[in-house]
Each structure stands twice: as C-alpha cells, then as structure tokens.
Amino acid sequence: MSQASLTDDDLFGEAATEMREDVESSLADARDALPAADEIWETDADNVLGALNGLKSALDTGDAADHLRDAKKWYTMGERADAFDDGDDLAEEIETLESTVEDIETAGEQVSDLTSTIPGLRSTLQDADEDEDEE
C-alpha cells in the first residue's frame, strides 16, 4: 500500500469518528430540546382552558426536530459511506427520538383542537342552562 492510501484511510477513519460524534451530539441536543415530563404533567391553571393553554405551550418541541434532522442527515451520510463500524445504536436512537417528537407534535395538535373547541362548548352549555332557567 502506498503512503497516500494510508493517509486516506487515516483521514477517512478520522472523518467517520467526527461524523459519529456529530450524530451523537445532534441526538443529545434533540433530547435536550424535548419538554420535561413534569412540564406536561403539572399545571397551575385555574380552569380547563388555562390548563390546555399551558399544556399546549409545554408540548412545544422547540428545536428538537431541527437537531433530529441534523442527526439523520449525518447518519445517512455516514451509512452511505460505510463509515460506521456499528451504527445500529444510532439508527435505533434516531427512530426512538423521531417517534417521540411525532407523538409530542400529535398531542400538541390534539390539545390545540381542544383549546379551540372548549370555549364554544362552554358557551353552548351556558346558553342551554339559560334556556332551561327561562322555562
């Protein structure tokens, strides 16, 4: 083997290590951006609408999706270049975080729907009570 190919192998190994570190760093950033469990569980609200608005805010994934996208991008590059000796752990973590982000976003959409529905429902029930009182 020539000296140039050894240098290329060394550089490739170094690049592969850096790529793995980038993926791991992006995954850690994505995890850190997720809301804490207590943030979505506890509330100081005085009513249901306040609780729903607080929950809606707590379900914000922040930059988690962007960090996850970066992790997937570098993981895909590394996989295609066959740079990872064992990238199964990275793939599993990406899949787990992707599922978690999707679950949080779905819950946020459901809470948003309730947040817009509850005031109208309350008004309808108040009108029904008034109609009953008039009779």
Would you give an account of this structure?
- The chain is mostly helical and 135 residues long.
- It has one domain (3-134).
- Helix 1 (3-33) packs parallel to helix 5, helix 3 (48-58) runs antiparallel to helix 5 and helix 4 packs antiparallel against helix 5 (88-134).
- The longest helix has 47 residues, at 88-134.
- The mean pLDDT is 91.
- The N and C termini lie far apart (98 Å).
- The chain has helices spanning 3-33, 37-41, 48-58, 64-80, 88-134.
Q: Helical proportion?
A: over 70%
Which structural class is indicated by helix and strand composition? mainly alpha
Largest sheet: none
Strand content: under 5%
Euclidean distance between termini CA atoms: 98 Å
Extended strand count? 0
**Global geometry:** rod-shaped
Order of helices and strands: HHHHH
Pfam families: DUF5790 (PF19103)
InterPro entries: DUF5790
Protein name: DUF5790 family protein
